[in-house]
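Chapter summary example: a protein plus zinc ion.
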Amino acid sequence: MQIPSLGDFIARHRNLFVLTGAGCSTDSGIPDYRDADGGWKRSPPVSFQAFMGSRAVRQRYWARSFVGWQHFRKAEPNQAHAALARLEQKGHLRTLVTQNVDGLHQAAGSTQVIDLHGRLDTVRCMDCEGLMPREQLQAELLERNPGWGTLQGRTAPDGDADLDALSFAEFAVPSCARCGGVLKPDVVFFGESVPRSRVDAAMRALERADGVLVVGSSLMVYSGYRFVQAAAQSGKPVAAVNLGRTRADELLTLKVSEPCGLALAAL
Ligand SMILES: [Zn+2]
């Protein structure tokens, strides 16, 4: 049997469901959590339960995120994002579901994007559901913690920065201005469920698709893996571009073990 190339796979499908993960953004300077075997490269991210349950955990989260945001906000789309935006313009891609929270697909020009895990540039009140731009919270954090404005940390995934030598007890974290509730980035944390309506929208898009292309995800997180599982169950072909193992390797029609930007830019 002849093994098809990625170019063939894309040429044969006019209605791809694309699922992207962290590997798509590493060339934009946003690090990844997983190694080539799909294991943790570093300590797992803070869990939803820990964040909601402890003021000290929130102080640590926001202090690190305050420093990390200064780098994260400057990230720009790379050639993988650009190639996927072109696929949409050329009519090969109907829906792009991303596990990334950086908004770089939209920055590259993609319009049919479902941000499965939310967006880091938005902050949500966990009580009144009010939303605010992250830039606004960043300004408030600086105002309350002026001494932290010049700190540099090692860049970590999800807009985080490593600042482990510091004490976070003095870091002031604002509450919701409207109701006093806990503010949380509008992203799905480890241990938190993806909102049902978002999963349903993505599943409907998958039903309409004639094939699936996974870009830069090890699919270790069930929230992404379930789409590949559903595609395989309904007989839709699945191709993946990912450096290293994915959880769905045995379900794939085509596997390209190359960096995302390189593999997609060549199309
Ligand atoms: Zn509120």
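Key point: Residues 125, 127-128, 130, 176, 178-179, 181 surround zinc ion (CB under 6 Å).
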